[in-house]
Amino acid sequence: MILQLLEEGGIVRRDKQLGYHLEKKDAKTEDLVQLAEAAGRKGDHDRQALERMVFYAQSGFCRWKVLLEYFNEEAEWDHCGHCDNCMNPPEKALLPLPTSDQEASAVAKPASTPSFPAGAMVKVPKVGKGQILSSTDEMVTIIFPDSQKRTFLKNHVELL
Ligand SMILES: [Zn+2]
């Protein structure tokens, strides 16, 4: 059994009331992977479960939670607060990495300055002059001196 392996490896200890506890609180990914591989060789778990555990062990999730889930034990918390990933979360490891420089620059690109900023004075042919309240990519909403609000396509509006 893998729990015996973990006990022999000093990673867990058995408690009569509460079951197994994480003993080696600084258990590293390599330790867990090694144990999972050992268990996999023994045929205690299927290959998919092993691969899943290796993936999570390397991903920055709580190591203890990953371990419990590998044994089909439900962890009622997300972080044990004791393993190295909980003490020092490598949050960056959980973020998807941009696949190319082009994508990275697209994400970093600031929003373009609106061509019709709110508050600017405009003129609408055959309607008159007004002030911009808001604008979208295609539409501009204008308030006119008679307090009427109307929305026009941008190409009908002239900035003053
Ligand atoms: Zn943890």
Describe this structure as you would to a colleague.
The structure is a single chain. The protein has 160 residues and is an alpha+beta fold. The protein has three domains: 1-58, no CATH class; 60-92, no CATH class; 112-160, SH3 type barrels (Roll), CATH 2.30.30.60. The protein contains six helices and seven strands. It has helices at residues 2-8, 29-42, 47-57, 63-70, 84-87, 101-108, and strands spanning 12-15, 19-22, 121-124, 128-135, 139-143, 149-153, 158-159. A hairpin with a 3-residue loop joins strand 3 (121-124) and strand 4. Helix 2 (29-42) runs antiparallel to helix 3 (47-57) and helix 3 (47-57) runs antiparallel to helix 4 (63-70). The protein is rod-shaped. The model has no long low-confidence stretch (mean pLDDT 72). The site of zinc ion has 9 residues, from helix 4 and helix 5.
Bound molecules: zinc ion
Stretches where pLDDT falls below 50 for ≥5 residues? none
**Share of β-strand residues:** 15-25%
**CA-based shape:** rod-shaped
What's the total number of strands?
A: 7
Mean pLDDT: 72
Q: Strand sequence of the main sheet, in spatial order?
A: 6-5-4-3-7
Percent helix, as a range, is 25-40%
Largest sheet: 5 strands, antiparallel
Tell me the radius of gyration: 30 Å
* Number of DSSP helical runs: 6
Could you say which structural class the secondary elements and strand pairing correspond to? alpha+beta
> What number of domains?
3
String of helices and strands: HEEHHHHHEEEEE
